[in-house]
Amino acid sequence: MSGEQLLLSDKYKAFLRCNASVEFLEGTTSAGKTTVGLFKFMLKVASSKKKLHIIAAKDTGTAEKNIINKDLGIVDDFGALVEYNGNGTSEDKIPHILFHASGGDKTVYVLGYGDKKKWQKALGGQYGCLYIDEINTADIDFVREAAMRCDYMMGTLNPDDPSLPVYSEYVDHARPLPEWESETPKEIRDCLVKEPKPGWVHWFFSFSHNLGLPKEKLEQILRNTPRGTKIWKNKIEGLRGRSTGLVFSNFDEKKHVLSRQEIAKIPHSINPFVKFTAGLDTSYSSHSEDTIAMMFIGITKDKRCIVLRECVYNNRDRQDPLAPSDTAVKFIAFLESCRKDYGFARDVFIDSADQATITELNKLKRNHGSLYTFVNSYKKVSIIDRINFQLGWLAEGKYLVSEDCTEHIRELNSYSWEEDKDIPEDGHDHTINAAQYAWIPFRKLIGEINSGMDKEYDR
Description:
Helices cover 33% and strands 20% of the residues. It has 459 residues and is an alpha/beta fold. Strands 3-4-5-2-6-7-1-8 form an eight-stranded mixed sheet, sandwiched between helices. It has a seven-stranded mixed sheet with strand order 9-15-12-11-10-13-14. It has two domains: 227 residues, P-loop containing nucleotide triphosphate hydrolases (Rossmann fold); 193 residues, 2-Layer Sandwich (Nucleotidyltransferase, domain 5), CATH 3.30.420. α13 packs across α14. The protein has 17 helices and 15 strands. The protein is elongated.
């Protein structure tokens, strides 16, 4: 035994008392999530009617260091009640903890989700309790396979790339308890929007909840982490966002996202809107995350580009997938809604690679009439130059986004460079592309520092 005591804040006491079927512990580094989470997990194992349970980490070595043998880890907490067999036994070859609980011995397998061949062999049958350490880094196939086999699941994580499937498939279906909701940052509450599942609870823990963290240690952590970086955002502020490789690394929600109230004041200000435009990017796949993205943008007298509204569809989630003819109707309805709320965008721009949708839009115009001119997107401005424009406008504070455009904000926070390549990824960019189609023809009306950058382009 280390001699350390498990000091509990009121929130951790509430967590220990909470009877949920699935719990996610998200928050800052050194918040005590693993320490307190493991203690509760083993109590759940003790009370389970099943004999077999699972603890999963990146590999068994990580589990031994950070879960089993650490100060206030499982061995420290439960002493002689647990036996760790790191190499298995003659009867059971899988590394496991034998837990001498009051209701009888329990076996807790220790698995590494980093080795697919090993965990595929280990998983089988049904389990009582499942603990996944740093679930945001886990193989999503492991999470899917293991989660369906357990009665109770706990996952710990530091905030990460919001586009990871573990969020949309698992974490974002959980909700904070009402009495603790206000302690969850708004940026994370805004992400917890997937269909809520009964008994799924989201917990947010920060430094303030770890009563065992010495002030000197906290000061050292803060001192050794560079401010303004993504690791500061993830580990210190406890907010989601990719840690490395972001294309729009200078996008800051506090600086670049406008409230509805702020946008409502613009038409009556000294710098009102002088131009409205819209863009449409399409993908009709039913087997991917690709979306049909509609974006409406206003440009102000003082050269700000403000993304006012978005509308996004994904055929993967639809029983009746959208066809180009459906998109044409929905896009005109979107434009009309924006016209009534903001103003008229006469010329609107559609992905030139999607001639089917452009044909359907023009057919609607011929048959029923329309205010709008449907124009092929102008792609002579390269992707790299588009990014360069936006980075400059973000630096100037000239590229802004309505708080209602949650998908565009998500993409700006996750659109990344390819690993070891000087090109951006082909993903997390559908609202970005649609917005670019909208502002490219009017880019000279936006910002200052890039005003001479595109002399080679004739439009």
